[in-house]
Amino acid sequence: MSDLDTIIANAQAAFAAAATPADLENAKAVFLGKQGQLTELMKGMAALSVEEKKTRGAAINVAKQAVEGALTARRQALADAELDKQLKAEALDVSLPGRQRGQGGLHPIALAWDRIEQIFGSMGFDVADGPEIENDWFNFTALNNPPNHPARSMQDTFYVDMNDEEAQPYCLRTHTSPMQIRYATAHAKKHANDAVFPEIRVIAPGRTYRVDSDATHSPMFHQVEGLWLGENVSFKDLKITFLNFCKTFFEDDGLVMRFRPSYFPFTEPSAEIDIQFSKGPLAGRWLEVAGSGQVHPTVVRNMGLDPEKIIGFAFGSGIDRLAMLRYGVNDLRLFFEGDVRFLSQFR
Q1: pLDDT for 12-21, tens place per residue?
Q2: Distances (CA, A) of 124 to 50, 111, 192, 247
Q3: pLDDT (tens digit, 9 = 90+) per residue, 159-168?
Q4: If both were cysteines, with which of 1, 30, 237, 300 could 307 make a disulfide (CB 3.0 to 4.6 Å apart)?
């Protein structure tokens, strides 16, 4: 028996003895891996003459095909055995009475969303809703984030090809801030001739999209943006509004809040908002929950308003993030996997 016949026979025996896919992969490495027996034979061909290489190479290829064929057959046999095992384990007894349909309930994100709308509604905020496919002006440029601005790299998103070089680019919106521009612009037109400018108080909850995915980020996520504009709106109003919201949302009257300096193109000055719970497993820890700031004069101007007369603040927070903190969930992906065992806890 030649050395190649011996390798084929040994490989067939090793594959047949493999009881699990892991065992089979280990056996494969012995013959077809980087240091495998057939691989080593191929390396040794460098010392042969041209004619010997042709003959030897053809023989090794035939042996390799035989080994790979045995490997494929054993893989299929193990897969068939596993499937048969699962089918037997999951067999149904059709003589048993049918299962009752379980009681449904709202998704935890929907519960958090509704709660946010109710709390801000009690403080006089309207709720605005708009398109999830947004044009470049509303999503970026009107928010003081022009083309080639470095802040755009922080909001990689999915663009829609309009097949028209003259058309404005469209994308899946990266935040719900475009609704601030849309709502305020409509409000400014409606009250252009009013002697006293009525304040703008609005929140914009909705789905947003960015190229991001891990335990605390999702390519699709939910965000709520808030806007309050008027002739005498200050950071004090922002602090009182958001502190009252957090205390009510998390049902923690002892909750405290702080601002940290930050940067956003559409606000100046800008601040991150951190909260500290007074009770529960997260008590004593500072947790970031929102970004905020005084609306940038350029953004106010793009709304059709005079930044010398109208000032105010904006804030943005992830609804998913708020829900995670409220319900004690440590992995964002659980919200979107559709596991009924997890979701049923919120009924």
Answers
A1: 888 888 888 8
A2: 87, 20, 22, 17
A3: 777 665 656 7
A4: 300
Tokens representing 258 are 């702080």
CATH architecture of the domain with range 108-346: 2-Layer Sandwich (3.30)
Cα–Cα nearest to 210, from 180, 178, 172, 265: 172
Specify the 3-state DSSP secondary structure of 226.
Answer: strand
Using 50, 70 and 90 to split pLDDT, how confident is the model at 1?
A: very low
Q: Report the alpha-carbon distance of residue 132 to residue 154 in Å, rounded.
A: 19
CA separation for the pair 315, 124 (Å, rounded): 16
Query: Other C-beta atoms within 10 Å of 102: how many?
Result: 9
From CA 149, how far away is CA 134, in angstroms rounded?
A: 18
Laid out side by side, the sheet with 159-160 consists of 133-135, 170-172, 159-160
Maximum Cα–Cα distance across the chain? 104
Domain parsing of the chain, residue ranges: 3-89, 108-346
pLDDT of amino acid 262:
94
> Which of these, 219, 113, 227, 119, lies nearest to 181 by C-alpha position?
227
Exposure on the CB side of residue 296, measured as CA atoms within 13 A: 17
Supply the DSSP symbol for 318.
Answer: E
125-156 pLDDT, tens per residue? 999 999 999 988 898 889 988 777 666 666 66
Please compute the mean of the pLDDT values over residues 94-103 and round it to a whole number.
76
Q: What would the mean pLDDT of 58-76 be, rounded to a whole number? A: 85
What is the pTM assigned to this prediction?
Answer: 0.67
Neighbours of 3 (CB within 10 A): 11
The amino acid at residue 207 is R
- Token couple for 180: 């601030």
